[in-house]
Amino acid sequence: MVAKNAFAAAAIGMLAVLGLAASASASQGRAMLADTMMMSMMAPAPGMMMMSMAPAPGMMMPMTFKQPALPYPYTATEPFIDNRTNTIHFTKHLATYYTNLNTAASTNSSLAMMKLEALVPALNMGTPKVIRNNAGGIFNHLIFFKTLMMPTAMTNSTNNTMLPEDIATAINSSFGNFSAFEKNMTETALGVFGSGWAWLTYNPKTKALAVEPTANQDNPLSAGLNYSGNTPLLGIDVWEHAYYLKHQNVRADYIKDWFMVVNWPQVSANYKAAMSGDMSMLTSYASA
Ligand SMILES: [Fe+2]
Question: Which positions fall inside the Manganese/iron superoxide dismutase C-terminal domain (predicted)?
Fold first, then answer.
């Protein structure tokens, strides 16, 4: 508990420098105040650039946020999500979010010290777009790819009889049955206007599951962006880059195919992590 509080205080101090401290909870107030005072001495005067934190010309930029390897072959989710889509999605789209966030971190050592699981819940309306979009983009895609798997009898099930017992019970308790959840998730994903996500989330206060959308690269954890603050267990990316090569404009077909390759044992593991408050587990990869 001590280590956790110390980490939270340090994180809030960094957020103060980033202009993100407004999202800190009241319980973190005292730690935030002390760290804000300390960190404010390190912050540049108004109007000044933080040039001292930029690498000298010719120096390599530090790779603060490192993209892990995909834990399965790009072909693993064929034929439902195709090799080419997975390859471009992981090696181009996700890689670009890493490049952009690392570029921002190269001139901002406070950002460079942040962990995604602390940064994403602290995002708010004052956060620079480059941080909001790219930190969210990385966090969301790590959850997305981690909750896909090769199609099996489990993923092909149209009910939850083959799902791990804990997540099956939670889905039944919150939605009535698996079909009702599937309908809710499908309609929410279809209802996202433009680019965004639909999520299965865990509410730490009520212990119930919910389905909710986010826009662009936002995440439900970001209460400061007017989302629920719930913990994401499973998310479907409904940006066109996630499905256009195979499904073109038919998002409904992509959603049906996505359900065929959901990694329910991983969703169950995410559920356990959410109940224990361990956010780092949601996006941890063996190769990271
Ligand atoms: Fe994506």
Answer: 166-269
